[in-house]
Amino acid sequence: MVDGQERHEPAGAGGQQGPHPAYEVSDRILTLPNVLSALRLVGVPIFLWLLFAGHDIWALVVLALSGISDYLDGKIARRFNLVSRVGELLDPLADRLYILTTLIALAWRGVLPVWLVILLLARDAFMAILILALKRIGQTGLPVHFVGKAATFNLLYAFPFLLLTLVPGRLGELARPIGWGFAWWGVGLYWLAAVLYAAQAATVFRRRSVAGLATGTAAS
């Protein structure tokens, strides 16, 4: 799932990320956070096979381990200054793949309505077009926004609970309202983040346009 091709910036860089301390982004590949992110990627096809095969409990275990590793790799990277460009690629990629595969599998299993899957995929298509438009003017990404992170958080928490609704009995009944609560918050924030990223992109386009006019005036 695309989320603005987000990139981490130090505090005060564009004013979008908030009061996080600055940290150095290295070119290192073999780090513990990167290993955890790579293991999460390896878990994606396993998770998908378990869901399609009907092994719901084991699929839930893989999803839970993915969530734990997602928390740990970011925490370790920031705490021990192990933030890397590879990690900034692998971590969101794993998040998006888990969301995408879970959407498809839960829709196939009849837990999610198809229109909800289309709504989320339409948002991703919108963001993909926005990113391509930015790349055409030389902009490679947008500052990370907490709303986008909150949307991903809600969706990643929604899916385990929605997966539990497949378990017959009281547990499945209890999981349903919790899962849908996280899901609706996730969908709403997901689209709100898209609007905020579009506003950021509009500012970039406007500044480039003004800069282009100024350059043209100076040249003439």
DSSP strand count: 2
Strand order of the largest sheet: 1-2
Using only C-alpha atoms, the radius of gyration works out to 19 Å
Share of residues in helices: over 70%
Helix-strand category: mainly alpha
Strand content: under 5%
End-to-end Cα distance, whole Å, is 45 Å
Please state the overall shape, judged from the principal axes of the Cα atoms. globular
Low-confidence stretches: 4-21
Major sheet attributes:
2 strands, parallel
Q: Provide the number of structural domains.
A: 2
Give me the number of helical elements: 6
N-to-C SSE string, H for helix and E for strand: EHHHHEHH
Fold blueprint:
Elements: E1 6-7, H1 32-53, H2 56-79, H3 85-108, H4 114-136, E2 142-143, H5 146-164, H6 170-219
Parallel strand pairs: 1-2
Helix pairs in contact: 1-2, 1-3, 2-5, 3-5, 4-6, 5-6
Quick rundown:
The protein is mainly α and 220 residues long. It has helices at residues 32-53, 56-79, 85-108, 114-136, 146-164, 170-219, and strands spanning 6-7, 142-143. It has a two-stranded parallel sheet with strand order 1-2.
